[in-house]
Amino acid sequence: MGKTSKATKATGKLGILMPGMGAVATTVIAGVYAVNKKIAEPIGSLSQIGRMRIGQRTTNNKPFIHDVVSLAKLKDVVFGGWDIFEDNMYESAMNAAVLEESLLKKLKPQLEAIKPMKAVFDKNYVKKLDGKNVKKGKNKMDLAKAVMKDIENFKKENGCDRLVMVWCGSTEIYIQEGPVHQTIETLEKGMVENHPDIPPSMIYAYAAIKMGVPYANGAPNLSCDIPALVELSKITKTPIAGKDFKTGQTLMKTILAPGLKARALGIEGWFSTNILGNRDGEVLDDPDNFKTKEVSKLGVLEQILEPELYPELYKDLYHKVRINYYPPRGDNKEGWDNIDIRGWLNYPMQIKIDFLCRDSILAAPIVLDLAIFLDLAQRAGMFGIQEWLSFYLKSPQAPKGLHPIHDIFKQLNKFENTLRHIAGEELITNLGLDYDQNK
Ligand SMILES: NC(=O)c1ccc[n+]([C@@H]2O[C@H](COP(=O)([O-])OP(=O)(O)OC[C@H]3O[C@@H](n4cnc5c(N)ncnc54)[C@H](O)[C@@H]3O)[C@@H](O)[C@H]2O)c1
Questions:
Q1: How many domains does the chain have?
Q2: β-bridge mates for residue 337, sequence order
Q3: Residue nearest to atom 5 of ligand 1 (CA)
Q4: Ligand 1 atom with minimal separation from the 284 CA
Q5: 380 in a domain, yes or no?
Q6: Average pLDDT for consecutive 10-residue bins of the chain (439 residues)?
Q7: Residues 43, 125 within the same domain
Q8: Is 431 part of any domain?
Q9: Are 175 and 200 in contact (CB under 8 A)?
Q10: What are the pocket residues of ligand 1 if the criterion is a CB atom closer than 6 Å to any ligand atom?
Q11: Cβ neighbours of residue 170 closer than 8 Å, sequence gap 6 or more
């Protein structure tokens, strides 16, 4: 750990709270328990197994990230959350059918001990779901206060030092930023008046940020991505991040597109289609919920390829994204991409990708890392939008007027340099001044 680290040390327990305790949340929780028992490996999590270069290239120093900055240890993490279903984490994980029964059985007592708190829920925002484990309140502000009470109780009962919240709930219907979202005053008034543009995910986000609990949004709905909550996060000095975990197809897109662009290859069309059969797929089968996802997925290519600067390569780009609910596959999504590219003298070529992925297996380490790094950000005195965590997100939240960065390699650079900055280490600029070949 650098002597001049800007972050205080991670001591005591970190509580990770998740609104939405379905496939992703249970895969994170069971995964952390399995890693703690040393019966599984935390593959995909940079906070656990990632390394980064420190200092000049010539020194060849690539320590673990968790040795560069002080991160909460997995044995100090406790979990909690909310869901509209009463199932404990063992039942929910069995229902999600992501992890093998034999693994879940080994973790059964720990998983059974976590039961979801009553959710803030309204069927108007997730049309395909209905559950009984739901809070009642006379208005949305009352519901936010009930969530704050839950947070306070959880912290006390579990002896937590610090908390973070990561939205792992279903994707809500598409809502655009409107007048009610502009200031803390309009938002609070809207909550008292039950304004329809304030969905449950925004109520949880308000409660967390108001209490100074770092908040990340793993779904594409707005949640904390509105001016009022960005303003609140600055007042309460709370780090926030969103939106939408970058997992399967979009992960591939943000790996491949920067490479094609780097070699000045043209792209004429990119058609992406998926089949998935989990509850997320069922929710996304509704056109209003799919619209939220579609907007999140479509922004990526345009920003990476910059057709306005490279019209000869990308002006005709046709980008289409489809998701189809197909129950037999469960959580094991299959994503196909057909990419029509152009090379020297405009000769056409094609690339086909068939990604047989596992949705929650890809999302779980992202939830864990977002929680661990948001906690670090708070201990380093950082607040507001944490753009350096865009690395994990499909539709990264950016300050007003700025484009989000989608290129995964630029995101990784920013991520690593931010960690170096927190650790009080030299930033890496790749200027090549560390080694003079003429010497
Ligand atoms: N798995 C991935 O690869 C991936 C990638 C990006 C985003 N996401 C998003 O992550 C979220 C979770 O995905 P999942 O596969 O775990 O879905 P899931 O359907 O298994 O779990 C979501 C849970 O949220 C609960 N829920 C819905 N509204 C709620 C509310 N208001 N309060 C509390 N609980 C609520 C549901 O009852 C359900 O149990 C989804 O929004 C999904 O779009 C997942």
A1: 2
A2: 272, 353
A3: 245
A4: 43
A5: yes
A6: 82 97 97 98 98 91 96 98 98 96 97 98 90 95 98 98 97 93 97 96 98 97 96 98 92 94 96 87 80 76 92 93 88 92 97 94 98 98 97 93 90 96 90 57
A7: yes
A8: no
A9: no
A10: 19-24, 82-85, 96, 119-121, 126, 129, 131, 168-171, 200, 218-219, 244-245, 247-248, 278-280, 359-360, 362-363
A11: 20, 22, 126, 129, 219, 279, 280, 283, 289
